[in-house]
Amino acid sequence: GAGLMPVTFGEFNVSDASPRHVFSALTDPSRTLDWDTSLASVAPLGHFREEGVRGMNILLTSGIVFVPPRELFEWMAYNESEKDQEYWLAYTSLENERLHAARERDASAVPMQNCLGAYWIRPCPKGGELHSNCPPSSPFGCCPDGGSHVVYTQHVNVHPPSFLPPRVLFDASWYRQIDWVNTLRGQAQMLKRRGEARLVMPDWMLKDALAPSPSSRTSPGSLGTSIARLMPKPPSGLASSGLFELPGTITASRSALPPLPFAAVLAGLAVLAALIPLALARPLRRRGPSAAASQQSRQHRGGAEEALVKDAHARGSDSEEALLSVA
């Protein structure tokens, strides 16, 4: 979509759940509505074997009264490595005209785009991650033995109001992202306890599907099988670690987390917009000496300026410089 929107990076650990459990929780559309409260509906739009992908229609709630939901038509591609127990998920809303032909838009929703989203899920090291290798900003978020490590990126344009900068929107939604991560953790752990880790996509979609054929209506290279290559390298350096690292030790429940601050931001902007005209209309006043003292000060200053002018005339060629200094 149009507009300069930030690319988000994140990583987090999931204890007591294998990569397959995390992947199953992320990719099973029949169950995502049970745990992901940001979704209003999820509708599969079919499998496209030539491209090795499937189409999805997703409706996301805004969570704010009078703000319409956002609708997304996107392709999803998957891959797995049974040997390494690694899973990849990539999705994009680019070149999705065929998906629009499969399902009509929701007239009450605002179209949104996700130019690229991807997840890389892999097992934690055997015995757990060494503390020396843990992220500096989260030394207690080490990848535990028997758990999973998830790295993700997304480039979303939800078309916010023009007066709301993308950075403000990102900061306002940060707690909601942490909330979502914790809920995903709980879902993956529940699947493990139940002994469930089903994969709902065809086997050919996971096992190195062929690249788009010449007859495919999708541009070669835009949807491919090398999903790992779609994962941009995360930013490095201390300056970006605060945005890149999701806290790995947060265990608060959904009800204990702060409410979505987006509404508070909008309310604050509205109050600010109302206060600015009032502030401009009021004359600026500052504390100072009494009226008599002010009059005396002005008289003293006038006498000093008159003396400087007389002195400037007396010095001849230096007069212009002196007069300028008085002015």
Automatic annotation (TrEMBL):
Compositionally biased intervals (Polar residues): 213-225
UniProtKB keywords: Membrane, Transmembrane, Transmembrane helix
SUPFAM superfamilies the record matches: Bet v1-like
Residue ranges crossing the lipid bilayer per the database entry: 260-280
Basic and acidic residues bias locations: 302-318
Signal peptide: none
Domain of life per record: Eukaryota
UniProt keyword Phosphoprotein present: no
Location of region: Disordered: 210-231, 287-327
Protein name: START domain-containing protein
